[in-house]
Every structure is written in structure tokens, then in C-alpha cells.
């Protein structure tokens, strides 16, 4: 396995970095944290024009036709910039429609998703649900040839910006089905939720929401098979974000250690500080290898669920440790709202639990080991 980037991949990585350096500032995130602004529509338009929303979508649907490795490159740079956006929701929705959708659904939705003209959100989570099919309580009752949804989904990332939801609901005692639900359907009520990282999340209440059987995504009673696959891919993309965030956190810390003086010399001259930074670099470099391996495997059609679980478990812990160590070395400066360090702490804490924390991932690995 060779995880070194090709010339084309390196150019793509640099283009993402250059664009975010020019068009995205962490002051935007500060305003989102305060509720003073939503993700800028002009920035969304530019991102759509760059093709980021369709990196791994085939060209016949308007995508770039690249692989999962390129998606990981994109999300690593997004994490480095601490970008909070609806990109992940859009990418995951597109991949889910590509995997589960019929020809009509793919033709109708994918080109518009890739172009940024439509926004989807995944309505999978529920109070008490933790990535197990048995935790789904939202019901879809069959009424003649159609369905009626009832129940609560929360939290739903980017649900307040979405035109459509992909909702997972119970269609029998043991089975679930995916439905495409238009956001303005009568009976759908949204309530915003406060978040630690400035991302947009809502609670969705479905009250006698009528959905046509034509809006089933995939096959009836087989929703979980598709959801398991998209959760796994989501965990890998979130791991890539955490890799980027930990890399940037280390860079900020080393730079500060070079200029902050104590006892007449830079803090970076002290061996104890140097060893702390060396330990952080070890976490970051190992994170890169463990993230890029399953991306490489996906592009070659290889099974890698356990590799993804290992990546998510490792990067969750590594990002947290890198941020914690940086706070120790920075001291009071890291707690100042004017400094970016606290934004990466927020990002690390939120990312750690998204799509399964390290404990959940270790359970998956253990189940595999002792099967």
C-alpha cells in the first residue's frame, strides 16, 4: 500500500487549501457560534462551482468521478481550516442516493445536489438511538399504497437548511425503510438545537406526515443495510476532518512555542516542551496512515469496516489528546476567544461523538475479533 499522494491529488489538496485560506475565515465560525450568521450562500455557490459536492459522484450525474481518497483529502483540509458547513450532509446524502436510489431518483436529485441547487439532510438519529437499528422509534405506517410518518428525529445536522430529508423509519417490528421527505411537507416541524461547535442541527417532529411509496429510497424493509454503509463512510470522512484539525492544532502550537519566551528564551527550547510536541506529531502522523488506508481500500472495492472503526477510534482519541496538550502548552492564551485554539477544541469534542465515539468503535472491533 502506498498512501503518498499522486501529482493530481497533491494539486487538488493545494487548491482546497488555497481556496479556504482566501475565502473562509474563522471569524465566520465565531459568528455562527453566536447565532449571528448562517453558512454564507455566496461561499456555498463557490464551493459548488469548484465541484467539491460531487468529488466521488460519477460524471454522468455531474460529478467529478474521482475516488474516496480525494474525498478524504477534501475533508482533511476542511478540518484543518475548521470549516463548519453543510458539505458533509450533502456528500453523504449524494452517496446514499447513489447507492440506494433507483434511476429516476438518481437522475432527479444527484445533478442538483452536485450543483448545490438542492440540499439534503440525513434524519437518522433519535433520542436514545446509537447506531443500532433497534433504537429507531419513528414509525412509517402503511395507509393504502402510501405511508404516514410519526415521531421525532434529533439531532439532524443541517436540517434547517435542507430542502429534503432522508428519514429512516420503522416499517415493521424488526425492519426499517428509508424515505425521501420534502422539508415543507405538512406535519413536519423543525426546532433549532444549540451546539458546541457552531454547526447547524435541528429536531424534526413528524406528525401524520404523508409520504408516497414512490419516495422510498432503496427497498422497503431494507433501510438499515444502506444506513450501515453510509454511517461507516461518514465515520471515515469525520476521521479525515479530525486528522486535519489535529494537524493544524499542532502547527499552531509549535509556532507559538517558537515565539513565546519564558526565562529569557523561547518555550520551544525546553526539552519537556519539545517532547510534548514530538508526542503530538506522532499522534498526527499515525492518524494520517490509519485514515488513508481504508480510503485506499474503498477505491479498490475492498471490505474495510473494521479499518474505518479503527480510524475513527484512533483519530477521536488522538485529536482530543493533541488539543489537550496544546492547551497545556499555550496556557491562558488558548482560552481567549480571540484565539482559534478554542474553536479546534469545540470541533474535537463534537467530532469525537459523531458517527460513533471511540468506545462504540472499539465495540465493533471487539465484536469482529471475538466473532
Order of helices and strands: HHHHHHEEEEEEEEHEEHHHH
The number of helices is: 11
- In the CATH hierarchy, the architecture of the largest domain is Up-down Bundle
Q: Supply the helix-strand structural class.
A: alpha+beta
Write down the CATH topology of the largest domain. Answer: Butyryl-CoA Dehydrogenase, subunit A, domain 3
Radius of gyration: 21 Å
> How many domains make up the 3D coordinates?
3
Q: Got a strand count?
A: 10
Q: What is the overall silhouette?
A: globular
Order of adjacent strands in the largest pleated sheet: 1-4-5-8
Largest sheet: 4 strands, mixed
Question: Oligomeric status of the shown chains?
Answer: single chain
* Percent of residues in β-strands: 15-25%
* Distance separating the two termini: 27 Å
Full CATH superfamily name of the largest domain: Butyryl-CoA Dehydrogenase, subunit A, domain 3
Mean pLDDT equals 96
Overall helicity? 40-55%
Q: What are the segments in which pLDDT stays under 50 over at least 5 consecutive residues? A: none
CATH class of the largest domain: Mainly Alpha
